[in-house]
Amino acid sequence: MMSHSKISKIIHWTFTLLYSYGIFKQVDDLSELEDPSLLNLEITFAIIFLIIVLIRYFFMKDAPTLLGATKEVRPGHLFLAKAMHRLIYSVLIMLPTTGLLIAALFNLGIGGIDFAVALHEFSALLSYVLIAMHIGAAFYSKLKGEGVWNGMVPVWKETKKYDSELLTKIKNIENRAYDKLEQILKI
Ligand code: HEM
Ligand code: HEM
User: Fold this and answer.
1) What's the average pLDDT block by block, 10 residues per block, for the chain (187 residues)?
2) Is the pTM of this model over 0.90?
3) Residue partners of 30: CB distance under 8 A and separation at least 6
4) What's the structural domain count of the chain?
Protein backbone atom coordinates (compact mmCIF):
# COMPACT_ATOMS: atom_id res chain seq x y z
CA MET A 1 0.00 0.00 0.00
CA MET A 2 1.32 3.46 -0.96
CA SER A 3 1.80 6.16 1.65
CA HIS A 4 3.03 9.77 1.72
CA SER A 5 6.73 9.97 2.68
CA LYS A 6 7.77 10.55 6.28
CA ILE A 7 8.88 14.09 5.44
CA SER A 8 5.51 14.89 3.75
CA LYS A 9 3.69 13.69 6.86
CA ILE A 10 5.94 15.72 9.16
CA ILE A 11 5.32 18.82 7.02
CA HIS A 12 1.53 18.23 6.96
CA TRP A 13 1.23 17.81 10.74
CA THR A 14 3.69 20.48 11.89
CA PHE A 15 2.01 22.90 9.49
CA THR A 16 -1.39 21.99 10.99
CA LEU A 17 0.04 23.15 14.35
CA LEU A 18 1.41 26.37 12.82
CA TYR A 19 -1.96 27.15 11.18
CA SER A 20 -3.83 26.46 14.46
CA TYR A 21 -1.40 28.74 16.32
CA GLY A 22 -1.98 31.48 13.70
CA ILE A 23 -5.74 31.20 14.12
CA PHE A 24 -5.68 31.15 17.93
CA LYS A 25 -3.25 34.02 18.36
CA GLN A 26 -5.27 36.23 16.00
CA VAL A 27 -5.43 40.00 16.49
CA ASP A 28 -8.84 40.93 17.91
CA ASP A 29 -9.01 44.40 16.55
CA LEU A 30 -7.13 47.07 14.66
CA SER A 31 -6.26 49.20 17.73
CA GLU A 32 -4.02 46.36 19.05
CA LEU A 33 -1.55 47.19 16.26
CA GLU A 34 -0.65 50.43 18.09
CA ASP A 35 1.59 48.25 20.29
CA PRO A 36 4.85 48.18 18.23
CA SER A 37 6.06 44.87 19.67
CA LEU A 38 2.79 43.14 18.75
CA LEU A 39 2.89 44.68 15.28
CA ASN A 40 6.48 43.44 14.77
CA LEU A 41 5.59 39.99 16.06
CA GLU A 42 2.62 39.77 13.66
CA ILE A 43 4.77 40.85 10.73
CA THR A 44 7.51 38.34 11.59
CA PHE A 45 4.98 35.54 12.03
CA ALA A 46 3.26 36.37 8.72
CA ILE A 47 6.59 36.37 6.81
CA ILE A 48 7.69 33.03 8.33
CA PHE A 49 4.23 31.53 7.68
CA LEU A 50 4.32 32.70 4.04
CA ILE A 51 7.83 31.32 3.45
CA ILE A 52 6.87 27.93 4.96
CA VAL A 53 3.69 27.73 2.84
CA LEU A 54 5.68 28.42 -0.33
CA ILE A 55 8.39 25.89 0.55
CA ARG A 56 5.70 23.32 1.34
CA TYR A 57 3.87 24.00 -1.92
CA PHE A 58 7.00 23.55 -4.03
CA PHE A 59 7.95 20.44 -2.10
CA MET A 60 4.48 18.83 -2.37
CA LYS A 61 3.34 19.94 -5.81
CA ASP A 62 4.71 16.85 -7.53
CA ALA A 63 3.59 14.36 -4.85
CA PRO A 64 0.71 12.22 -6.14
CA THR A 65 -2.76 13.16 -4.86
CA LEU A 66 -4.85 10.51 -3.02
CA LEU A 67 -1.66 8.48 -2.87
CA GLY A 68 -2.91 5.92 -0.32
CA ALA A 69 -5.91 4.85 -2.46
CA THR A 70 -6.07 1.07 -2.71
CA LYS A 71 -8.38 1.09 -5.75
CA GLU A 72 -8.06 3.10 -8.95
CA VAL A 73 -9.31 6.66 -8.37
CA ARG A 74 -11.88 8.14 -10.75
CA PRO A 75 -10.54 11.09 -12.79
CA GLY A 76 -13.36 13.32 -11.46
CA HIS A 77 -12.38 12.48 -7.89
CA LEU A 78 -8.72 13.20 -8.55
CA PHE A 79 -9.59 16.51 -10.22
CA LEU A 80 -11.68 17.62 -7.21
CA ALA A 81 -9.03 16.57 -4.67
CA LYS A 82 -6.28 18.44 -6.57
CA ALA A 83 -8.48 21.53 -6.96
CA MET A 84 -9.26 21.45 -3.24
CA HIS A 85 -5.56 21.23 -2.28
CA ARG A 86 -4.75 24.15 -4.60
CA LEU A 87 -7.56 26.20 -3.06
CA ILE A 88 -6.16 25.45 0.40
CA TYR A 89 -2.71 26.65 -0.69
CA SER A 90 -4.25 29.82 -2.20
CA VAL A 91 -6.03 30.69 1.02
CA LEU A 92 -2.90 29.94 3.07
CA ILE A 93 -1.09 32.50 0.91
CA MET A 94 -3.94 35.03 1.13
CA LEU A 95 -4.00 34.98 4.95
CA PRO A 96 -0.45 36.28 5.62
CA THR A 97 -0.42 38.48 2.49
CA THR A 98 -3.57 40.36 3.49
CA GLY A 99 -2.18 40.55 7.08
CA LEU A 100 1.01 42.15 5.72
CA LEU A 101 -1.13 44.50 3.62
CA ILE A 102 -2.90 45.62 6.84
CA ALA A 103 0.50 46.20 8.49
CA ALA A 104 1.77 48.22 5.50
CA LEU A 105 -1.35 50.42 5.32
CA PHE A 106 -1.29 50.85 9.11
CA ASN A 107 2.34 52.05 9.05
CA LEU A 108 1.85 54.31 6.07
CA GLY A 109 -1.34 55.75 7.54
CA ILE A 110 -3.00 55.96 4.15
CA GLY A 111 -6.60 54.88 3.45
CA GLY A 112 -7.90 51.49 2.43
CA ILE A 113 -7.21 49.67 5.68
CA ASP A 114 -10.88 48.74 6.16
CA PHE A 115 -10.83 47.01 2.80
CA ALA A 116 -7.59 45.17 3.71
CA VAL A 117 -9.17 44.03 7.01
CA ALA A 118 -12.26 42.82 5.12
CA LEU A 119 -10.02 40.82 2.73
CA HIS A 120 -8.11 39.40 5.72
CA GLU A 121 -11.33 38.36 7.48
CA PHE A 122 -12.65 36.84 4.27
CA SER A 123 -9.40 34.82 3.92
CA ALA A 124 -9.76 33.59 7.51
CA LEU A 125 -13.38 32.56 6.94
CA LEU A 126 -12.55 30.82 3.66
CA SER A 127 -9.70 28.93 5.39
CA TYR A 128 -12.15 27.63 8.03
CA VAL A 129 -14.60 26.48 5.37
CA LEU A 130 -12.00 24.80 3.15
CA ILE A 131 -10.19 23.08 6.01
CA ALA A 132 -13.48 21.88 7.52
CA MET A 133 -14.36 20.41 4.09
CA HIS A 134 -10.87 18.87 3.86
CA ILE A 135 -11.18 17.20 7.27
CA GLY A 136 -14.76 16.11 6.44
CA ALA A 137 -13.55 14.56 3.16
CA ALA A 138 -10.75 12.72 5.02
CA PHE A 139 -13.27 11.22 7.47
CA TYR A 140 -15.69 10.34 4.68
CA SER A 141 -12.88 8.59 2.81
CA LYS A 142 -11.97 6.73 6.00
CA LEU A 143 -15.57 5.50 6.29
CA LYS A 144 -15.45 4.29 2.69
CA GLY A 145 -12.19 2.47 3.50
CA GLU A 146 -10.32 3.84 0.47
CA GLY A 147 -6.83 3.83 2.03
CA VAL A 148 -6.34 7.62 1.55
CA TRP A 149 -6.56 8.28 5.31
CA ASN A 150 -3.79 5.77 6.03
CA GLY A 151 -1.56 7.49 3.47
CA MET A 152 -1.33 10.69 5.57
CA VAL A 153 -2.77 10.11 9.05
CA PRO A 154 -0.56 8.16 11.47
CA VAL A 155 -3.28 7.45 14.06
CA TRP A 156 -6.65 5.66 14.27
CA LYS A 157 -5.77 3.61 11.21
CA GLU A 158 -8.44 2.52 8.77
CA THR A 159 -8.93 -1.24 9.12
CA LYS A 160 -12.26 -1.93 7.46
CA LYS A 161 -14.92 -0.50 5.15
CA TYR A 162 -18.15 0.63 6.81
CA ASP A 163 -21.37 -0.39 5.18
CA SER A 164 -24.77 1.17 5.61
CA GLU A 165 -27.71 2.09 3.46
CA LEU A 166 -27.02 5.80 3.98
CA LEU A 167 -23.36 5.46 2.99
CA THR A 168 -24.34 3.55 -0.16
CA LYS A 169 -26.78 6.35 -1.07
CA ILE A 170 -24.12 9.02 -0.52
CA LYS A 171 -21.60 7.01 -2.60
CA ASN A 172 -24.15 6.80 -5.43
CA ILE A 173 -24.65 10.57 -5.37
CA GLU A 174 -20.87 11.01 -5.33
CA ASN A 175 -20.47 8.73 -8.36
CA ARG A 176 -23.20 10.54 -10.29
CA ALA A 177 -21.45 13.85 -9.54
CA TYR A 178 -18.20 12.41 -10.96
CA ASP A 179 -20.09 11.18 -14.07
CA LYS A 180 -21.27 14.77 -14.68
CA LEU A 181 -17.89 16.33 -13.92
CA GLU A 182 -16.00 13.89 -16.16
CA GLN A 183 -18.52 14.56 -18.95
CA ILE A 184 -18.11 18.34 -18.62
CA LEU A 185 -14.31 18.22 -18.39
CA LYS A 186 -14.07 15.40 -20.95
CA ILE A 187 -11.70 13.41 -18.70
C1 HEM B 1 -7.51 16.62 11.48
C2 HEM B 1 -7.02 17.33 10.49
C3 HEM B 1 -6.60 16.82 9.15
C4 HEM B 1 -6.78 15.59 8.55
C5 HEM B 1 -7.47 14.35 9.09
C6 HEM B 1 -6.14 15.65 7.24
C7 HEM B 1 -6.07 14.61 6.33
C8 HEM B 1 -5.36 14.62 5.16
C9 HEM B 1 -5.14 13.50 4.29
C10 HEM B 1 -5.69 12.10 4.51
C11 HEM B 1 -4.39 13.91 3.24
C12 HEM B 1 -3.89 13.06 2.07
C13 HEM B 1 -4.64 13.35 0.81
C14 HEM B 1 -3.93 12.77 -0.40
O15 HEM B 1 -3.24 11.76 -0.30
O16 HEM B 1 -4.07 13.38 -1.48
C17 HEM B 1 -4.12 15.34 3.42
C18 HEM B 1 -3.41 16.13 2.54
C19 HEM B 1 -3.36 17.51 2.63
N20 HEM B 1 -3.77 18.28 3.71
FE21 HEM B 1 -4.67 17.59 5.39
N22 HEM B 1 -5.63 16.92 7.05
C23 HEM B 1 -5.89 17.66 8.20
C24 HEM B 1 -5.54 18.99 8.41
C25 HEM B 1 -5.05 19.84 7.44
C26 HEM B 1 -4.84 21.26 7.63
C27 HEM B 1 -5.12 22.04 8.91
C28 HEM B 1 -4.35 21.74 6.45
C29 HEM B 1 -3.96 23.14 6.07
C30 HEM B 1 -3.58 24.03 6.92
C31 HEM B 1 -4.25 20.62 5.52
C32 HEM B 1 -3.82 20.69 4.21
C33 HEM B 1 -3.56 19.62 3.39
C34 HEM B 1 -2.99 19.71 2.05
C35 HEM B 1 -2.63 21.00 1.30
C36 HEM B 1 -2.86 18.38 1.58
C37 HEM B 1 -2.28 17.91 0.23
C38 HEM B 1 -0.92 17.36 0.42
C39 HEM B 1 0.06 18.47 0.71
O40 HEM B 1 0.24 19.34 -0.15
O41 HEM B 1 0.62 18.45 1.83
N42 HEM B 1 -4.67 19.47 6.17
N43 HEM B 1 -4.72 15.74 4.60
C1 HEM C 1 -0.21 34.13 8.91
C2 HEM C 1 -0.48 35.27 9.48
C3 HEM C 1 -1.84 35.62 10.02
C4 HEM C 1 -2.92 34.82 10.35
C5 HEM C 1 -3.02 33.30 10.25
C6 HEM C 1 -3.98 35.70 10.82
C7 HEM C 1 -5.23 35.28 11.24
C8 HEM C 1 -6.24 36.13 11.61
C9 HEM C 1 -7.57 35.71 11.93
C10 HEM C 1 -8.08 34.27 11.91
C11 HEM C 1 -8.30 36.83 12.25
C12 HEM C 1 -9.78 36.88 12.64
C13 HEM C 1 -10.62 37.21 11.43
C14 HEM C 1 -12.09 37.20 11.70
O15 HEM C 1 -12.55 37.99 12.55
O16 HEM C 1 -12.79 36.40 11.05
C17 HEM C 1 -7.41 37.95 12.15
C18 HEM C 1 -7.77 39.24 12.40
C19 HEM C 1 -6.92 40.30 12.30
N20 HEM C 1 -5.62 40.27 11.86
FE21 HEM C 1 -4.59 38.64 11.29
N22 HEM C 1 -3.52 36.99 10.76
C23 HEM C 1 -2.23 36.98 10.28
C24 HEM C 1 -1.39 38.06 10.08
C25 HEM C 1 -1.73 39.36 10.39
C26 HEM C 1 -0.86 40.51 10.23
C27 HEM C 1 0.57 40.48 9.68
C28 HEM C 1 -1.58 41.60 10.65
C29 HEM C 1 -1.16 43.04 10.68
C30 HEM C 1 -0.08 43.44 11.26
C31 HEM C 1 -2.88 41.16 11.04
C32 HEM C 1 -3.89 41.98 11.52
C33 HEM C 1 -5.15 41.57 11.88
C34 HEM C 1 -6.17 42.48 12.36
C35 HEM C 1 -6.07 44.00 12.53
C36 HEM C 1 -7.30 41.68 12.63
C37 HEM C 1 -8.62 42.13 13.24
C38 HEM C 1 -9.56 42.62 12.23
C39 HEM C 1 -10.77 43.22 12.92
O40 HEM C 1 -10.70 44.41 13.27
O41 HEM C 1 -11.74 42.47 13.09
N42 HEM C 1 -2.95 39.78 10.87
N43 HEM C 1 -6.17 37.51 11.74
Assistant:
1) 94 98 95 96 98 98 96 97 98 98 95 96 98 98 96 95 93 98 97
2) yes
3) 102, 106, 113, 117
4) 1
